[in-house]
Amino acid sequence: MKLVANLKLTPTPAQERELRLTLARCNEACNWLSERAWETKTFRQYDLHKLCYQAVRAKFALSAQVAVRCIAKVAHAYKLDQKTQRAFRKHAAHPYDDRILRFVCDEKVSLWLLSGREKIGYVGSDHQRQLLEHRKGEVDLMFVRGQWYLAAVCDFDDPKLLTPEGMLGVDFGIVNIATDSLGERYCGAKVQAYRERYAKRRATLQRLGTRAAKRCLRHISGRQKRFQKYENHCISKRIVSTAERSRLGIGLENLKHIRARVKANKAQRKRLHNWGFAQLRAFIEYKAKRAGVPVVIVDPRNTSRECPACGRIDKANRPTQSEFRCVECGHSNHADHNAAGNIARRAAVTQPMFAHKCAPCAVESRQL
């Protein structure tokens, strides 16, 4: 599997100026190459290299390997289609390989710049440093919101999947971001309060429309998104840890295209479209893969309306958002917890390995 380690560079003021100049020069060269490729309809890397290698080196004073990376970057940009001419921002990310980048130690990296090789410090967590042991391929130099980063792709073998003793069903929601079949609920009140706070603040600043208001909008841009991403990371980590500790697989519902299927009134529409279930599912899947925990995707239809005791499916079984009460047998439970239990049972049935293990019973025994 592949993961990306983002390392923050700590350049001196002089090194930062050189980094800006280098990134601007490389993207200027890429734009020139893109023009030549568009004019001559030469999009393959080999053909573009043969056509422009000497010229781009002479025109932009680039080293041999940097010129090769620029050509590869332009050719890769045209792989999607050749219908529009590609253009690159002044400080767009640029790839480095082992010929123009080298990690000197745990604190410094040697980079090619226009002025020559520079050793620049970087910081990263212990987790990121462990990932670097599996670094493979190119490293992207990025300039994001005034900060410099290196994005290193790390490729390592998938761990052996454990043999689960049951399934942990996870129900995604808006009031409760996630609820598992063991009864643990991850409330979304904090995320909703943060979302409402920043929505109100953005509306006020946009209504003002002054230069100071626009500057403030740029300053707070992305905060809500980063907070929601942080919360999804925390929730996914706890869910995977619970499954690994209990030797359970994870059952998730397939909510793809749910926004197109579900109808919501105007008051609920904004909240529905801010729902980050796809990101949370992706985080759970890659963390589970690293931990060797199997993940099963199931059909979400009627999971919140089905009674686990008698099997009755009825819209009236869920009179309120949080309450489940079967109209047939009277069984009652928290609605999200009930749905998570149904997901766990469906995930167990989906996997042939659980046919003889009575996995749903294992989950039910933990619920009591």
Automatic annotation (TrEMBL):
<dbReference type="Pfam" id="PF07282">
    <property type="entry name" value="Cas12f1-like_TNB"/>
</dbReference>
<dbReference type="InterPro" id="IPR010095">
    <property type="entry name" value="Cas12f1-like_TNB"/>
</dbReference>
<dbReference type="InterPro" id="IPR051399">
    <property type="entry name" value="RNA-guided_DNA_endo/Transpos"/>
</dbReference>
<keyword id="KW-0238">DNA-binding</keyword>
<feature type="domain" description="Cas12f1-like TNB">
    <location>
        <begin position="277"/>
        <end position="343"/>
    </location>
</feature>
<dbReference type="GO" id="GO:0003677">
    <property type="term" value="F:DNA binding"/>
</dbReference>
<protein>
    <submittedName>
        <fullName>Transposase, IS605 OrfB</fullName>
    </submittedName>
</protein>
